[in-house]
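User: Sequence recovery, please. Input:
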């Protein structure tokens, strides 16, 4: 499967590390992105919210952006890379 993103959707950088054939991580801002199934995204971003205050969450969060081929829509937001939990969506 071809990754539909030609650059990072968060910062437009073209430098990225290949995490697996369908997922990339931006070398500039850390955004995790790709074209995959909802099940595949759970390797990186869990379907759980990170507890904590907004100020604390903003300091630890990196963006994510996935095009879900099984559901035919996009999900995006920010997550804590240590826990994998969502800190903000949209």
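Assistant: Recovered sequence (90 residues):
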């Amino acid at each position: 499967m071809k990754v539909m993103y030609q650059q990072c959707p968060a910062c437009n950088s073209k430098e990225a590390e290949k995490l697996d054939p369908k997922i990339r991580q931006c070398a500039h801002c850390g955004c995790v992105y790709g074209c995959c199934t909802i099940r595949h995204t759970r390797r990186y971003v869990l379907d759980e919210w990170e507890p904590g205050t907004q100020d604390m969450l903003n300091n630890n969060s990196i963006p994510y952006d996935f095009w879900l081929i099984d559901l035919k829509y996009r999900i995006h937001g920010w997550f804590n890379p240590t826990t994998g939990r969502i800190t903000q969506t949209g």
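The longest helix spans residues 54-60.
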